[in-house]
Amino acid sequence: MKKYMLFLSLFSLSLFLVCCSQEIDEKGKVLARINDYNLMPLDELEESIKKNKHLPGLPSAKNVEANGIMVGEMTQTLTQKVEELTLYIIELNKKVEKLEKENQSLKDK
Which residues of the chain have pLDDT under 70? Predict the structure, then answer.
């Protein structure tokens, strides 16, 4: 129990330090960074996960167990993964909306 509490305390402290050390900027600059992503096609992502048993860009469980993690780097990587997931959701939502419109137009005929 104490190990977990210490870990959470260190994690919270590192998040605080990362947040405080980053310059707070306009929303536009965040969006500009998001637009820089080259998303892997979902079928390739699926194959990578099946093959490696973890998301691309993240260390394997064995690697983490053997070498640990740098909290600041992991926080940055996880933030990137959240941004990528958000972009995948937006892309999928656009496809769903397109299909809904096509479906509606077929119903209207």
Answer: 1-35
Report the alpha-carbon distance of residue 62 to residue 68 in Å, rounded.
Answer: 9
Whole-model pTM over 0.70: no
Do 57 and 80 form a contact (C-beta atoms < 8 A)?
A: yes
pLDDT, tens digit, 9 for 90 and up, residues 39-49: 899 999 999 99
Q: Does any domain span residue 6? A: no
Number of structural domains in the chain? 1
Q: Which domain holds residue 89?
A: 26-108
> b/e for 65-88, b at 16 or more Cβ within 10 A?
eeeeeebeebbebeeeeeebeeee
Encode 51-102 in three state secondary structure: HHCCCCCCCCHHHHHHHCCCHHHHHHHHHHHHHHHHHHHHHHHHHHHHHHHH
CA–CA distances in Å: residue 27 to residues 37, 44, 55, 62: 17, 31, 27, 37
